[in-house]
């Protein structure tokens, strides 16, 4: 397809932040874009057809995919972006809260992907871009459960890519660093806070706010999604932003003891 007619794209979690900017970038690139949000939007992105879809609900996901097929007849690109955060000590979250986090960040990706794969297989063509994080590559004190979802997404995506290549489908990862998005909208607090973690949790939240304020613009991630979507021979991973590139290099090439020491220093933890 030409640049003016790239195909049909679905972006989950397109109501704000990275998802919204990505949907708009793909629209400019020539895709017919459908976006999803949990609730109806009063201000949908220009040129993007918004659908109400809860990625934690099988019927809701399938209904959204069926709607796109009726209206567009195909789906060439899926961007799994919907996700939530959780900041606090791992011990401070109940199993129920951890399960809810995984239900969005991991099983939500699985639901949407499973609904899309039969469509792409019939087409013998498709690209799936999963939005991961540098926290899928490194330890993340006071983000342990969130980081666990991204570690899971990394393993799932890389393995799935090997399974579906012969069907004309590729699965790739985009790994942002810290992005300037609405902190309060994207973070969840522990449902059973414990006093031994009060100071460390507060320090971790302060650090996160500071990092977010000087983080990459969402457009940095959107540009990398476009690159990953359009690449004729895609790479397995695309790092988005200076911090993400640095972390990827450090994790891959430097000694574990060095990484451990500097990670604790960065997070203000005693050696």
TrEMBL record:
Entry keyword annotation includes Transcription: no
Listed InterPro entries: KR_dom (IPR057326), NAD(P)-bd_dom_sf (IPR036291), SDR_fam (IPR002347), SDR_oxidoreductase (IPR051911)
Pfam family, one: adh_short
Family matches, as Gene3D superfamilies: NAD(P)-binding Rossmann-like Domain
Span of domain Ketoreductase: 7-199
SUPFAM superfamilies linked to this entry: NAD(P)-binding Rossmann-fold domains
Oxidoreductase among keywords: yes
A Gene Ontology molecular function term of the record: oxidoreductase activity
Assigned keywords, A-Z: Oxidoreductase
SMART domains in UniProt: PKS_KR
Homology family: Belongs to the short-chain dehydrogenases/reductases (SDR) family.
NCBIfam families documented for this protein: PRK06179.1
Protein name: Oxidoreductase
Organism of this sequence: Rhizobium tropici
């Amino acid at each position: 397809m030409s640049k003016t007619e790239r195909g049909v794209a679905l972006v989950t979690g397109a109501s704000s932040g990275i998802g919204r900017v990505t949907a708009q970038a793909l629209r400019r690139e020539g895709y017919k874009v459908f976006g999803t949000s949990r609730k109806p939007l009063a201000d949908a992105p220009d040129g993007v057809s918004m659908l109400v879809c809860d990625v934690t609900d099988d019927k809701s996901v399938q209904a959204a995919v069926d709607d796109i097929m009726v209206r567009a007849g195909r789906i060439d690109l899926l961007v799994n972006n919907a996700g939530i955060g959780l900041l606090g000590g791992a011990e401070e979250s109940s199993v129920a809260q951890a399960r809810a986090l995984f239900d969005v960040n991991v099983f939500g990706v699985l639901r949407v992907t499973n609904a899309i794969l039969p469509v792409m297989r019939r087409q013998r063509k498709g690209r799936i871009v999963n939005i991961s994080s540098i926290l899928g590559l490194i330890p993340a004190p006071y983000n342990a459960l969130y980081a666990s979802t991204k570690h899971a997404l990394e393993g799932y995506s890389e393995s799935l890519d090997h399974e579906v290549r012969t069907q004309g489908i590729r699965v790739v990862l985009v790994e942002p660093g810290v992005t300037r998005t609405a902190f309060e909208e994207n973070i969840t607090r522990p449902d059973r806070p414990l006093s031994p973690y009060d100071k460390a949790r507060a320090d971790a939240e302060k650090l996160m706010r500071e990092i977010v304020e000087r983080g990459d613009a969402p457009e940095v991630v959107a540009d990398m999604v476009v690159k990953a979507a359009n690449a004729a021979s895609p790479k397995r991973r695309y790092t988005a932003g200076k911090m993400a590139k640095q972390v990827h290099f450090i994790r891959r090439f430097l000694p574990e003891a060095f990484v451990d020491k500097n990670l604790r220093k960065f997070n203000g933890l005693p050696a």
